[in-house]
């Protein structure tokens, strides 16, 4: 079982508007927040709702992601720093990196120029 710090939702500050929205996926939304003890963090919010079967499926997905993030330690991977709970959501608190997202990097012209140069070598 993972042993992660739990932070009270009241210690996380966010504007709840699109300015703090980092991304949105099938299972979760990621928001930029300020945590009293750590400063700026990213909070991945998994909403747990629907039928009992759907809730169990979502909880399994959350636990898989917690486990993967908790085990990975590399300079190029954000680190999980804790958990929290907002309303019907269970949340992973991670380092916040302001370098953009992977999709933007992969679709940037700079990345594809490097890829074409490497293929010629």
Automatic annotation (TrEMBL):
Residue intervals of the Protein kinase domain: 16-121
Source organism superkingdom: Eukaryota
Alphabetical keyword list: ATP-binding, Kinase, Nucleotide-binding, Serine/threonine-protein kinase, Transferase
Binding site for ATP: 44
Protein name: Protein kinase domain-containing protein
Organism: Clavelina lepadiformis (Light-bulb sea squirt)
Nucleotide-binding recorded as keyword: yes
Gene3D superfamilies recorded: Transferase(Phosphotransferase) domain 1 (1.10.510.10)
Database matches in Pfam families: Pkinase
Oxidoreductase is among the record's keywords: no
InterPro entries: Kinase-like_dom_sf, Prot_kinase_dom, Protein_kinase_ATP_BS
């Amino acid at each position: 079982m993972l042993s992660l710090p739990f932070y009270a939702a009241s210690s996380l500050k966010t504007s709840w508007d699109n300015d703090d929205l980092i991304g949105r996926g099938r299972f979760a939304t990621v928001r930029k927040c300020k945590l009293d003890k750590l400063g700026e963090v990213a909070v991945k919010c998994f909403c747990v709702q629907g039928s009992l079967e759907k809730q169990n499926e979502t909880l399994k997905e959350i636990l898989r992601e917690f486990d993967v993030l908790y085990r990975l330690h590399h300079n190029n991977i954000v680190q999980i720093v804790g958990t929290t709970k907002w309303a019907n959501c269970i949340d992973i608190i991670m380092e916040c990196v302001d370098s953009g997202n992977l999709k933007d990097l992969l679709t940037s012209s700079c990345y594809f120029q490097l890829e074409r140069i490497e293929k010629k070598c």
